[in-house]
Amino acid sequence: MSLRVANLLAWASWALSVALVPVGFTFGVLALSASLPSGREPILPLIAVEEVLLLAYGTVGALIASRRPENAIGWIFCAVGLALAVASTASGYADYGLYADGVALPGPELAAWFSVWLNILVLFVAPCLLFLLFPDGRPPSTRWRPVVWLVAVAGAGIFFTLAFSPGELDEYTYPGLANPLSIGGVAGEVLTTIQSPGNGLLPIVVLVSISSMIVRFWRPGDRERLQIKWVVYTAALTATSFLVSFMLPEPVPQAAQDAVFLVGVAAFAAIPVAAGIAILRYRLYDIDLLINRTLVYGALTASLALVYVGSVVGLQYALRALTGEGSQFAIVASTLAIAALFNPLRRRIQDFVDRRFYRKKYDAARVLEAFSARLRDETDLGRLNEDLVAVVRETVQPEHTSLWLRDPAAAREPRAGS
User: Fold this and answer.
1) Is 132 contained in some domain?
2) Over the stretch 33-58, which tens digit does the pLDDT of each residue have?
3) Domain range for residue 323?
4) Are residues 271 and 336 in the same domain?
5) Is the residue at 408 inside a domain?
6) Is 281 helix (H, G, I), strand (E, B) or coil?
7) What is the pLDDT of residue 15?
8) For the chain, what is the radius of gyration of the CA atoms?
9) Domain assignment present for 345
10) Is residue 366 domain-shared with residue 353, that is, in the same domain?
11) DSSP characters for 322-349?
12) 282 within 8 A of 227, measured Cβ to Cβ
């Protein structure tokens, strides 16, 4: 494929995805007035999340595909963006057409059918292919090609079992709605039979796909390792955010739970951005600094939150025991304690992270500190020369080290013509 054709296809896919954004959002807003089945939440928040994701995936996919058309990752992201655009539009259309009073839209059942299998298919196939083909668009070796075919077979299984199985289309999203394209007879019974074993196979396929990135990471090559770090960092941040949001106890305010969930959505949308940075190699080497700062400030935030909650609860309990009632003093004192602890705790956490995860950097800093201390007291030039060469060898670790000093007598000689 020529670069011109790739550029045209990539940006045409992006333009179509973007054009569907206001359509899906409009139907989502209209569906707010619909009488949804009991237990169903409005579809608008899901549409908003999908549209954020489709803009991220579609835009990055178009950038990669137009510049590196030989890399399959760009085309996968373009397909994800377009699929999410269709799914979000179909979801809003289906809700408005099925549940709004006095509305008779053509084919809302078919729109619901599209939204059900398309969302699940994208969420399964896209991550597996990303893990298998990142960063060069090819599997780690020819031995991994059967895994790519396994993902394709699993994706086809998802499509057929969701799209054509008899019975309800989706018991939560569209309860009571029969599958408009269900297959009866023996074929339908076969699809129903293989659905449960097929669902059990999906986690295995995902784990095998993830293992391909582990294989790539431990292969020689610092550049590929840095590229993988970008995607692993955003994927880990996504998983951690969603896990925390689901595991927060009930006493935590709903606003805090929603904030953590939105962090997870933002991190999920950042996965294609991280992949684009890695593939296009823009600021590739910043990932270690980003991981370092995330570890430090994530641990700092969690520690300060625990200290604040613990001190407020402890002081309130002590004040009630002494005076019989609570006081704002507990909140004020806890806030002042957090302000006083911020910098000392940050330095300790930074030191721990550097010592545990960035040992070379930590050792180099300690060596430089020791050399600076000796430099203030040492007067022997020969000893200083030896120390300087030793420090360079230990911190920079070059293949060869030598020190050249200019002759002081030659430095004092006047230049010719001066």
Assistant:
1) yes
2) 888 777 777 788 888 888 888 888 88
3) 301-357
4) no
5) no
6) coil
7) 92
8) 29
9) yes
10) no
11) HHSS--THHHHHHHHHHHHHHHHHHHHH
12) no
